[in-house]
Design goal:
Blueprint (H helix, E strand, L loop, with lengths): L1 H6 L9 H31 L4 H21 L20 H46 L3 H28 L3 H30 L4 H26 L14 H14 L9 H19 L6 H30 L3 H39 L4 H12 L2 H27 L4 H30 L4 H32 L15 H4 L13 H26 L7 H20 L8 H26 L7 H23 L5 H38 L12 H8 L4 H6 L3 H9 L1 H6 L1
Helix pairs in contact: 2-3, 2-4, 3-4, 4-5, 4-7, 5-6, 5-24, 6-7, 6-14, 6-15, 7-14, 8-9, 8-11, 9-10, 10-11, 11-13, 11-15, 12-13, 12-14, 12-15, 13-14, 14-15, 17-18, 17-21, 18-19, 18-21, 19-20, 19-21, 20-21
């Protein structure tokens, strides 16, 4: 940004002192920023000898370019820069351009090298996990298993930290969702691996116990491999990833092409358009061929598919005529054909959405009592092999229904991240179903085995957990379809202690009852309105990558998830989830306050004191929220009071945010227009460098998905050993 200011400065004959001083400040700011950047680069180089030489060269080039820019912009003390023998930006603009190019290329090189180091760290961590997994697979004594699993737990925690940071850094929402899915698998499988391995050690000759354990190890290896694929942006054997095409994305692209005919009649062929429609209609066969689609939905989909073909034929006919002769009547006919084709596709989209979501709602309601799982647990403990076989058949049927539901939901998910979540859910049901069956068979063969019973409990918990997640997913899909929330998503990487804690029986889900929801409804609604206001303010910013905007968007997303909690919806399912979300929200607010203070150092404006005052207020209310969220609460009444206080304080933070965002936007516009004095960017604080380079600080740990539960697996090893 600063370099662009320098390169684009206007070559006016008269240069005021203010202009000269501003140019000098920008040059100095660039040089100082480069110096700080290079210091970090050199520190990275010293820790990674294999890239030290390359990194050092890039750092030297960057430092040299920064110093050159500072020299060429040293113009404030010159009365007549042109007549002076000293070379400046006014006498040698080419020199500044060259220095800027060198600076940008060397800075890019440092970033690429640093990124290679991060990727290497993740791969090294993955390799350590794989090596320890191999040891765990071959272990034969319980004592040896305890020792190795303790090491494995620590390595998984390290891997979770590294991949959590990487997930937060990813810009591609699709990759982010894939990473979140893979990390969720690893986190859940860690507990499964523990109980499945213990069962195998207790019953070494049991074939079903071995199958159960092998399934967990295989799934973990696949998830580890997928993380590396995302991190390195590669596929095994060099194959390209074939993204599954959904009906929604197909219709969206088809409509874009059709509507594009208004601007250009020649940009695509009729064959191209016909092929696109054929692909969409082929995918609708997933609905019409499904045994779970109602007769009414099937008939409507077939009817609309037939109508879509007819509308396209009519459109192509008018389109071909319009290419030969652009009369007013023909262009009007073309507009009508375009509208009718798009309307038909919208109706088809609405019909498949209705078919998929009504099926999902019915299935989730039907399976909400978990009767088959309960029956498997009872018959397993009784050692009734015949009854277990009967209920495993019923579970297999249930699995087929849920897998089909996920496939149909994927077609109507509306966004790529939700599409990936549907694929992940389908895989989970496909894998967990057979694992429950093998765990139930093991228990039926050894009905008095406490560890076999515990193992079945863990796999049943995973199934129930996925069913519960499907309800949340269905709501999100409906929200996107109805345009209530667009593509905005709450944080997927939040720890969910009520669900993923190692001691699965210790934390029972605590939700608000109907009466409590009614009491807090008004406060929740106010929070909802404030999130809309904040979203509206962030959309006004030209630079959506601005640190202030990103913190604001993140806080708005978290506040929205807290609002959903007050309605008994969303990903925050228990009061414990809400309190943890409030802590993360307060931390994000403190980060925003730091960004605001850094921004205030760059401006001279009458509103600067107001900005600093509001930033101080923000720090204060965020601290209050953090204290409230961390305070203990025993009993139903105290817990509700704490929930009420957290929502209230979150509302106060969001109210401040609504005032801060327009103020910052105004100051930034003034600064860009040249009304505010440019100042050099303040030097990084030491603690900021530490936060940026240390992935193991408590703050980072709190934001990393599943780490708390992994750490619990490790700390509970003494309990395991005693058992």
């Amino acid at each position: 940004s600063q370099i662009t200011t320098l390169i684009n400065h206007k070559d006016k004959p008269k240069r005021s002192d203010k202009t000269l001083q501003a140019i000098q400040r920008v040059g100095q700011a660039v040089n100082l920023a480069v110096g700080r950047f290079v210091t970090v680069g050199e520190a990275i180089a010293n820790e990674n000898h294999e890239l030290k030489e390359e990194m050092s060269v890039a750092c030297i080039e960057a430092r040299r370019a920064g110093e050159t820019i500072a020299q060429l912009t040293d113009v404030a003390s010159l009365d007549h820069p042109e007549s002076d023998s000293h070379i400046t930006i006014f006498t040698d603009k080419t020199g500044v351009v060259k220095a800027a190019r060198l600076l940008l290329s060397s800075v890019t090189k440092v970033l690429v090298l640093a990124d290679r180091i991060v990727i290497k760290q993740i791969i090294t961590s993955r390799n350590k996990v794989l090596a320890t997994m191999e040891q765990l697979e071959k272990v034969s004594s319980f004592q040896e298993f305890v020792q190795i699993f303790s090491q494995f737990g620590n390595e998984m925690v390290e891997f979770a930290h590294l991949t959590g940071d990487r997930q937060n850094d990813l810009k591609d929402e699709k990759k982010k969702a894939r990473m979140a899915a893979s990390r969720a698998v690893l986190e859940k499988c860690t507990m499964m691996l523990l109980t499945a391995s213990k069962t195998c050690l207790r019953h070494p000759d049991c074939e079903s116990a071995r199958i159960n354990k092998d399934g967990v190890f295989h799934r973990m290896r696949l998830a580890l491999e997928q993380v590396i694929e995302i991190v390195t942006d590669s596929r095994p054997n060099g194959e390209n990833e074939m993204a599954p095409i959904s009906i929604y994305s197909g219709i969206k692209e088809f409509k874009n092409k059709v509507e594009g005919l208004r601007e250009n009649l020649y940009f695509l062929s009729k064959e191209n358009l016909s092929t696109m429609l054929e692909v969409i209609l082929e995918h609708t066969e997933d609905f019409t061929d499904s045994a779970y689609t109602s007769h009414e939905h099937r008939e409507h989909i077939l009817e609309l598919s037939k109508q879509a073909k007819m509308e396209l034929e009519q459109l192509v006919s008018v389109w071909m005529q319009a290419q030969n002769q652009k009369t007013k009547d023909l262009m009007e006919d073309l507009e009508v054909a375009i509208l009718k084709t798009c309307q038909c596709m919208n109706e088809l989209k609405r019909e498949v959405h209705s078919a998929a979501t009504s099926l999902a709602a019915d299935l989730l309601k039907y399976h909400t009592d978990h009767m088959v799982l309960k029956a498997l647990k009872i018959t397993g403990v009784e050692g009734n092999l015949e009854a277990v076989a009967e209920y495993t058949c019923k579970l297999s049927e249930q699995k087929e229904q849920l897998v089909e539901m996920c496939r149909l939901l994927r077609h109507v998910s509306g966004t790529e991240p939700l599409e990936i979540t549907c694929i992940h859910a389908e895989d989970t049901f496909q894998v967990t179903g057979p694992q429950i069956i093998s765990a139930a068979e093991t228990l039926a063969l050894h009905p008095s085995s406490k560890i076999a019973k515990e193992n079945l409990e863990v796999f049943c918990e995973a199934w129930e957990s996925q069913l519960s997640d499907m309800s949340m997913l269905l709501r999100e899909i409906n929200d996107v379809f109805e345009g209530r929330r667009g593509e905005k998503r709450v944080y997927l990487s939040l720890p969910r202690p009520g669900k993923h804690n190692a001691n699965l029986k210790a934390l029972k889900p605590v939700k608000l009852d109907t009466e409590e929801q009614a009491k807090i409804a008004k406060l929740g609604l106010e929070l909802h309105l404030l999130t809309s206001d904040v979203d509206s303010e962030t959309e006004k910013w030209e630079d959506q990558e601005n640190e202030i905007v990103q913190h604001g968007q993140g806080m708005s997303s978290m506040a929205y998830s807290m609002y959903l909690f007050t309605r008994g919806e969303g990903l925050l399912k228990t009061t414990q989830d809400l309190f943890h979300q409030a802590e993360i929200f307060a931390t994000e607010g403190t980060k925003l306050a730091s960004a605001l203070q850094a921004f205030s150092d760059q401006i001279h404006d009458d509103d600067k004191p107001l900005l600093l005052l509001e930033a101080e207020k923000l720090i204060s209310v965020c601290k209050q929220l953090q204290i409230t969220a961390k305070a203990s609460a025993q009993g139903k009444s105290a817990t509700f009071t704490k929930v009420d206080a957290c929502i209230l304080k979150t509302r106060n933070v969001m109210t401040l945010l609504c005032q801060l965002l327009p103020l910052c936007c105004k100051l930034l516009r003034k600064k860009k227009a040249g009304n505010g004095c440019l100042k050099p960017v303040p030097p990084w604080r030491e603690d900021r460098i530490r936060t940026g380079t240390n992935a193991h600080t408590p703050e980072r740990r709190a934001e990393t998905f599943g780490i708390k539960s992994l750490e619990n697996h490790v700390t509970n090893m003494t309990f395991l050993e005693s058992k």
